[in-house]
Amino acid sequence: MSAPSLTPSKAGTSRPSPPREAAPAPPGARFARGLRRNLTAHGFLIGAVLCFGVFSWYPMVREFFLAFQKTEDGRTTWVGLDNLATVVNDPAFWQAWGNTALFTVLALVLGFAVPFLVAVVINELQHGRGYLRLLVYLPVMLPPVASVLLFKYLYDPGYGLLNELFTSVGLPEQQWLQDPDISMLAVVIASTWMNMGGATLIYLAALQSIPGELYEAAE
Fold this sequence. Notes:
mainly alpha; 2 domains; 9 helices; flat
């Protein structure tokens, strides 16, 4: 921006003239500056899109087309809806749907109820809330493989901890993952334990945001 110049007025005195505005940069220069400024963000975005495209979107699109094809002896032929008809007529397909629906219902019920009850208990305590919050969120921080191995040890019919506790109090041993009557519940309990940390902290934050005067008025 140029400095203001002095121009003579009618009375013979000098007064500053208004500064002249600088010429706007051409669109190409503005785009180049913005691109350089956001180069890091664009790099991360492109990397994420490439990862999703290679490992998620491409397999999904490929599997969609493979569903209408049949590969035999290295030769691929188009079969249309024959594969879908084969799957629908398979009794195991409907059993899998039923098991999935049952797991979803049980996981939703326990996934809402258990974190809420745990949050209520922690909120009522006067001491040790920080340690309990860390303990509740610990399963979320554990690798899934470690959690699976932990429950594999707990549910093992030969040397599992749960069967050891059952036999110590005179109860019969259970086939936790082999008995169809209780295996679904055992899997849902493990899934709830591994994922309850985040929901518990959200419920606890909501409970602690309630003013104490409301609790006193309710009492």
